Structures are given as structure tokens and as C-alpha cells.
Amino acid sequence: MSLLPLLLLLLVSSEHNTHAQTITQGATITAGTTNSSWTSPSGDFAFGFYRLSNGNFLVGIWFDKIPEKTLVWSANRDAPVPASSTLRLTTGTSAGHLILTSSDGNSTYLYQSTAASSGYMQDDGNFVLKNASPSVLWQTFDSPTDTLLPGQVLVAGRKLYSNKNGTVDYSTGNFMLEMQKDSNLVLSAYHFADPGYWVSNTININNVSLVFNRTNAFMYLKNTTDIILPLTEDVPKPTEDYYHRVTLNDHGNLQQHVYQKNNSQWKMVWRVITEPCTVNAICGVYGICSSPDNETVSCDCLPGYRPLDPNNIAKGCYPKSKPDRCIEKPSLTNFTVEVIDDADFPNAGFADLGRVTPTDEEGCRKALMDDCYCMAASFVNSTCYKKRMPILNARISRNSTNGYKALIKVPKQISDGGGILNGDHHGGKKSVSRGLLKAGLFTTAAFALLFAALAVYYHPVVRRFIRRPRRPSADVDAMLINLRAFTFEELHEATCGFTTRLGRGSFGMVYSGTLVIEDKQIEIAVKALKKIAAAERGEEEFEAELRAIGRTHHRNLVRLLGFCNEDKHRILVYELMKNGTLSNLLFKQGEKPSWEHRVEMALGIARGVLYLHEECETQIIHCDIKPQNVLLDKNYTAKISDFGLAKIMMKDQTRTNTNVRGTAGYMAPEWLKNAPVTTKVDVYSFGVMLLEILCCRRHIDPKRVEEETEEVDLVLTEWIADCIKSGKLNMVVEEDMEALNDFKRFERMAMVGLWCVHPDPPLRPSMKKVTQMLEGTIEVGIPPLLYPEMV
Fold this sequence. Notes:
By secondary structure, the protein is an alpha+beta fold. The strands form twelve sheets. It has a six-stranded mixed β-sheet. Helix 10 runs antiparallel to helix 12, helix 10 packs antiparallel against helix 17 (767-775) and helix 12 (680-695) runs antiparallel to helix 16 (743-756). The longest helix is centred in the middle third of the chain and has 24 residues, at 434-457.
């Protein structure tokens, strides 16, 4: 060989570390042993088993030369494995697959496609699998977790997810960075269906990607020819003397860090959010964020609330008690108002109830106390912005909230100076005195005796003989504060005469339209109730639906914007869900939604049903949970729709007799027995739908019915149960590589679905337990449906 070709060969082989240590078929590493990782040629990075503080391991990549051993990628962040687990590039009949085998025998494929002949841990932090050519078959740079490294590109459709709690908990956190297909780079609190608290505003520019430049360590948005938006402002030089990383941290901030080689610690050189408390939902529901230096973040609970997890207040808070907010004159007897100086509740993430302007602080306090549906308010520049539950994004931010005041309505019996007021944060006012508290308790006790006497007097036996004249519901009058009352003429104009049909909903047709409110165009869906239904159901039914829907607010429920109750016209106005039904997404021909998106949708729907059952003020049984009644907004967030069939229950009720409702296939067996139904009918329907979401196929496939097939997979629940009993559940997703690579979670969620569809209602779990099992916070036992003889 001549000298020139030899030199060219050496140059090519050295570029991007293709001369890295070769991992051949049969190579194996074991967690907790000296042979637990494969290192890059320079030793800068390692790929293998990363030890957690609890003794379990993640399959990950980390900076290996520095004391911090900083993790930059993980394959199993939500499912760590114990010591003695193995990672192997397989041989034999399934040669060239990368498989993780836990010490308990369960296996997960990190890569399972065209056989890889070798693997390499490169000096740029990228682990690659190649064929004999050699061409790259799979690389970790294509599936980032929370970090980007120099040379890495985030293309359209790819996402970063924060860790849950720094280096304590590496599991998937609350924040997401997405390079959207419309070319917008968006940071969002995705659990709350947040449209984004930071956006690049690079929308509708073709082929935009987020690039972390390998040479100069600058980060920018770039299309095929130009830099569209530079992000990094400066990095220390020379670049090669430093390690570099960009990470979406557990506080929702995208930050760039450098580490001088042979030095002591990481240093931040750039961040996209300069005021940390402007990150949406950073302290969870009913939490409040404070950041006096705009560097550190401190979470606390609003007055009247306590932390869900005392060890991590950022998870959010819940009310210390839930008094009836809309009893007669509640403000005079049950509540006081606490004020936090230099604090605010920005609009994003929760509903406004209107504004009062011009006014002063006392006028804002009065507006808050007079509105039983209002739980908080912001007083800003002579304007009072009223808020309702749930309260998100409360913040004390050094620059953004100076001079603002946050007002919170707190039940007197729990107005004890706790939460942020007791910590002397920014001059917050103290709660009521001990003397006033005692007086309040005495008054409450007196009223309790009075109410007890009234309860005896108005016992149902007595009430039967008392006929009171009917008057319009006070709650519907109050709804005018929550919901807008439209005239029929307004809605007729907004829908162009009810011409564009979206479909048929409960009791009537649904039309699309556009409203102009305060010079803004809002797209709406209008449900016109059938005349027969309206006449039969009457005012009482219509008002019940208004009361129920108007008081609900959850990211996974379709929001009611207003109503029309004019003459014979009964019309409900909803936010428009642009992407149609979940049914169309799951069962249409062509590309199915990604596994991660299906998991997100299943969890969101579960949380929405849980809210209806246990968390909203008036308990609601939906009675017709199915994919056709789950709609998708512009971000493809799943939202439960159609409360026209819901049976409204008071908090102290557990069962209700009602006519058979629901849809065949999703209907719980007790409907057909004319037995009193409970919330467990929704659990059954959710279980059927959950299995449909996991498998992207209908519970009963019409094609198989038409073909009169006798295959065991005719009914989805029965097929999955049979596959689990025979140990062949992988057959269900054998053509779904994403689900197969996350088989442990698929198996867990499938088992939850079988728990839900047990024919005996008491054996079905509550939606709270269903949600916990889906999230992985409690164990999923063997569903009794699999082994009925053991029940």
C-alpha cells in the first residue's frame, strides 16, 4: 500500500473516534462488578451500569474521568435494576441485539432490529451499534433523556425530559423540551397540558433543528442553510479544555454547563430562563415559588395547604380541609383572606374568573370574599384578577412581581399562619390572632348546633309534606361568573347558522364556530341539545350539567366556556379540540401514535377520571368512557368530553339508580343487571379503553366479526388474559418495537387493565389506585380475572 492511501485511512479511522474500543457479539457487563461498563478510548465517557444511591443501577452514559460521574443518558430511568443484572450484545439465533436482563430474569431490549455486529463507546459521549459495513444502526444521540452533548442535534419531533429530582431521582420529571414539527422549540410543564412557558417563536420555518455545535460548543437553532436563533452567549476558551453539556434540569430550566478538565466542578455559562419562578407549575398545584436572587428556587405551600410530600414540596400541596365554599354567605363565616406581598398568580395554567377595575386592595379583597367560586386573586396596578381552583404558578419573583399582591381565601379554622406566611418570606401578612381564632371556633360550634337542629327539622320524612315553590337555581346564577351566558343569536352567528358539523354528541349535534371576545378569535365547539332531550330533561337536568361542568377544571377534561338557555334553546359551548377523537387516532390506517404518547394519554385520562370521581366538588360518574369521548387538543393532549350522560352525585353518596347508559363493549356488567351503579362502571370502561390504547386495536375488531373467525384474539381482554396466563404477552406487541423495548411497563399497564375489567365491581380498584398502579407508585398484583378460582 502506498503512503498516501495509508495516511487517508488513518485520518478517516480517527475521525469522531471510530477507532473506539470494539464491543463484539457476546460481550457482556454485569451491574455491581468490576466489569460493569465499556469506556471510550480517552476514558472521558463510560457506557454501562450507573450506580444509584439506593444501590440499584441505570443503564447509562456518564462523564467518567471527573469525581461527579455526571450522568448524561439513561435507557431505564423509570425502571432501575438491581445488582447482578447484565447487559449483553447477543449471539446465536437472535444475534446482534442489545438486551438488558435484570437479576430477577426479566429482559428488556435496548435495541432489537437488524443484527448489529459491533458496538462502540465514542469519545463524544455517543454509544453506537453498527453492522459489518460499518453503518450506524442505532445510537444514543438519537434518543436523548435530559442532556445534549456537543455534536448532538435535536430534530423535529424529539424531546428532552427533566429528571424528577436532580441527582436524587433520575426518573422522568415534570418538564419537557420539544423540537416541534412546526419548527418551534418549546419548554413546557407537559403534565399540565401546558402550551409552553418558553418558546423560540421560530414557527413555520422549514427543517429547523436544535444544534449543539461540536467545534465551538455554541447552541443554536438552524435550518439547512442558516442559523435562525443563537442561544448560547459565551463559553470559555479554548473549547477543548472543557467538558460541555446542556441539560433540562428538574426546575424546568434549560442550562449549559462547562467543566474545566482536571478542575473541581461544573459551572453554568447560559440558561434560557433568567427568572426561575416564571417556569409553569414549578412548585406544583397550590405551591408557591420564591427566588430572591433569581438563582435558587424555594417551594412552599400557599396558606391553608400542606405538602403532598414533606420531603419534596415541589410535588405540590393539597387543602388542609375542604369546606363548602358556596353555602349561604360563606365569606362571613368560614373564610378569611391572607395577603402575600410581591407575589402573583399569572394567567397560565388556570382559569380567570374575570377582573375588577379600577379598584384598590380592599376592593379586591371584597371581590374575592363575595364570589364563592373564587379562591384567589392578584392585585396588579389597580386591577383585581380573580382566580379559581386549581391554583397554579403562584410565585414571588424578584423582578416580575414587585408591587403585586396575591390574595388567598383560607378557611378560618385552618388560618394558622402556616405555609409561606410563617416563614417571613417577603413581608407576607400574618394570619388571624389566637383570640379571633377562638371566637371563630366558638361561632362555628354555635352554627353547628343550629344546623343540627335544622337538619332534624328538615328530616326527609318531614320534607315530603313540605312543598316549596320552585325558583331558579342560585348556582346557575353564580355560573354567570364562571361561564359566559350567550344569546342564541350570538351562537347562530358564531357557527354561521350551525352549518359545520363536527359530529354527534350526547343529546344532540356538535358544530364548530368562532367567537370574538375582547378582540381575540376563539375557536369553539357548540353542542345543541335535542329538543326532545331538552323537553324531557327539563331545566333541572340542564342546570345539573352546568353546575357539574362549570365547577370542574382539569387538564384532561374538555373545558366548558359557556351556555345558552334561551326559550327552547339549550346549548353548551366548549373549547374546540382540533385533533378530533382518540378513536380516530388509535384505529386509523397508517402510523400509530408513539408508545410514549400512548402512555401519556392513558395516564392523563386516568387522572381525569380520578378527578371526576374524587377531586371535583360534585362527584361525577361519566357513564360512557370510550375513545370516541376522549378528544385531542392542538398538542394531542387527551381530554375527556361529553358529560351529558354523567350522573351527578353528592359527596356522601356512593351509588345511584339510573337507566342503562354507555356503549356496548365498554359497558360494565352491572348495567345489564339493572343494579345500582357506582364509580366502578367508569373503572370498567377505562380498563377496556386502556387495553385499546396499549395495543392500538379495538376491543372487538369488526373485521374479525365479519370473517366469523374463531381466533382467541377476537375479544381484546380475553386475548391479553390468555397471553399472560400462557407467558406469551410479548405476542401482543411483537410488531410494536417501542412497546416491546419498554415491555416491563407494557406488562404492568396491561395487568392494570385486567384489574379494571373484573365482572365483580368490589374487586375493581378505585381510579386513585388505578392511577397509582399506572404511575408505578404502588405494586400491581395478579388480577383476579386471571385466576378466578383463587378469589
